[in-house]
From TrEMBL:
This is Diguanylate cyclase. It is an enzyme of class 2 (transferase). Its EC number is 2.7.7.65. Keywords: Nucleotidyltransferase, Transferase. It comes from the Bacteria.
Length: 483
């Protein structure tokens, strides 16, 4: 082909109102009109070569496979004369609709139309998708609606729709409900009206959803006769084009995600389909995760409650509901250590009901039990400071741990115990010390050090209690070391 002929062709085709690139297969040279120079950042040269296109990153938006301008002409022309090309520049990316044609044996032509300016950060689809998936991965029940709202807005905007939404089918599949909706400015929302839509009121739609999980209508006006009900409903909502994709949960169809075009019709592209499907799958997965998470939380809570109950059970005396011996042993050990570190005294009181055998014999074992409950409650009521602990040590013997309490304060405390028991007025006609039930009390107060043991405290308080019993009962004795 002569140069003159080429220039003649170029002088015409460069005027096409799109970006135009001409490729001379034989010479491996290119021509680009001013729009193509602008879109591809090409130098304003009469003839270009491969090197002038080197900075371009071209890829297929579906497969992400990269190719050069040469490959676009040579390979893609054979496969497809009409394709989408993703052009990535340094700061932005553009989605182009490319149309390729062979003008003659040596001359190929490509026109490019920008169909999407992806540079707007908010709607860069990749960014949106990664944001939606990250947001929805660790979703909590209280913010799922916000994230779904964002995802619907994103997909609606990216697919140039006026409305996007989620629908859920009822358990029995007999009705559907619009759960989330995004509408573009000036577009009427229909969510409130679409809460209990019987599935059989849209049989054509329901059948397609069931079988293909897809309802794609580029022009509502051209819906077939068998879709009359759907056509009526879509026209009532002012919809010109609609695309709905089924959502599945454990292989079961649970709902669908969809986009409507109201202001103008849309030829839904494969890319629209891929994108809506992707967002739908992310949302369906989020619901799945949320369900798992809620179930897990419920089980965890049950375990925590069961554990708390168990803990309470193993540390509580079943008759008196105060701390049992096990709990006492743990508490005494830790209080001794804590007071040793804080250089504070610890007091241990041991109390034993006087003539309790006689009490049981006289009033019966059951009333004996009731007396034990009353004594336990009276002792517990005196323990008002944090760390104080009353425990049933065994049988009719009780112990009180008073951390950070010296011997004077402990003595005062034992007097209070005596008064409280007296005030309880539990009749005991078989006691030789009083007509009421009384306690013998022994205590030991000391400043613990790192070598102090619980056993040492127990032994000494016990010795004091023994002394109280030996020397008349209904009295308080303190352990004093003999020098
Ligand atoms: N009702 C009842 N009695 C109990 C319980 N645990 C121990 N006892 C009784 O408490 C009595 C304790 O008797 P002893 O150890 O002889 O002492 P005491 O009769 O209180 O005499 P002193 O301690 O010497 O004043 C026994 O008869 C036990 O059966 C209990 O849970 N319920």
């Amino acid at each position: 082909m002569g140069l003159k002929q080429l220039e003649d062709i170029w002088s015409t085709v460069k005027l096409i109102p799109f970006a135009v690139v001409l490729y001379d297969v034989k010479k491996h040279t290119y021509k680009a009109n001013s729009q193509a120079q602008l879109i591809f950042d090409l130098p304003e040269k009469h003839t270009l070569n491969k090197a002038d296109f080197k900075h371009l990153k071209l890829s297929s938006p579906e497969s992400r496979k990269q190719f050069t301008i040469e490959q676009l002409f040579e390979k893609y022309l054979v496969i497809n004369t009409n394709c989408h090309v993703l052009l990535q520049k340094q700061t932005k990316s553009l989605l182009l609709n490319a149309k390729l044609a062979q003008l003659n044996k040596h001359l190929h032509i490509a026109t490019f139309e920008v169909i999407e300016h992806n540079q707007d950060a908010q709607y860069n689809f990749d960014k949106i998708i990664s944001k939606i998936s990250t947001d929805l991965i660790d979703i909590q029940n209280d913010n799922i609606d916000t994230h779904i709202g964002f995802a619907l807005k994103a997909i609606g905007t990216v697919c140039h729709a006026d409305r996007s939404y989620l629908f859920k089918f009822s358990e029995d599949g007999k009705s559907m409900r619009n759960t989330h909706e995004w509408v573009n400015q000036g577009i009427q929302a229909f969510k409130e009206q679409l809460q209990h839509v019987p599935t059989n009121s849209l049989p054509y739609f329901a059948n397609l959803m069931d079988t293909t999980h897809l309802f794609k209508v580029n022009d509502v006006a051209s819906l077939p006769i068998k879709a009359t009900k759907e056509k009526q409903e879509l026209e009532r909502e002012g919809i010109q084009s609609v695309l709905c994709i089924g959502l599945r949960y454990d292989k079961e169809l649970v709902g669908f995600i969809g986009c409507d075009c109201v202001k103008q019709k849309r030829e839904w592209t494969d890319l629209d389909l891929i994108r809506i499907k992707l967002v739908g799958e992310i949302i369906a997965n989020a619901f799945k995760n949320l369900n798992y998470k809620q179930e897990l939380q419920r089980i965890q809570q049950q375990l925590i409650t069961a554990n708390q109950k168990l803990n309470q059970l193993v540390n509580t005396d079943s008759l008196t509901s105060i701390a049992n011996r096990r709990c006492f042993d743990k508490a005494l050990e830790s209080e001794i250590k804590r007071c040793a570190r804080a250089e504070q005294p610890v007091s241990l009181i041991m109390c034993d009901i006087d003539f309790f055998k006689n009490y049981n014999d006289s009033y019966g074992h059951q009333q004996g039990d009731e007396a034990l409950v009353k004594v336990a409650a009276a002792l517990k009521a005196q323990c008002r400071r944090e760390g104080d602990l009353t425990a049933r040590y065994g049988g009719e013997e009780f112990a009180v741990i008073l951390p950070a309490t010296n011997e004077q304060d402990c003595l005062q405390f034992t007097r209070l115990i005596q008064q409280t028991i007296k005030a309880a007025g539990i009749k005991h006609n078989k006691s030789s010390v009083s007509e009421y039930l009384t306690l013998s009390i022994g205590f030991y107060s000391a400043m613990p050090d790192k070598n102090s043991t619980p056993q040492c405290f127990i032994n000494k308080a016990d010795q004091a209690l023994y002394k109280a019993k030996e020397t008349g009962r209904n009295k308080v004795c303190q352990f004093k070391p003999t020098h």
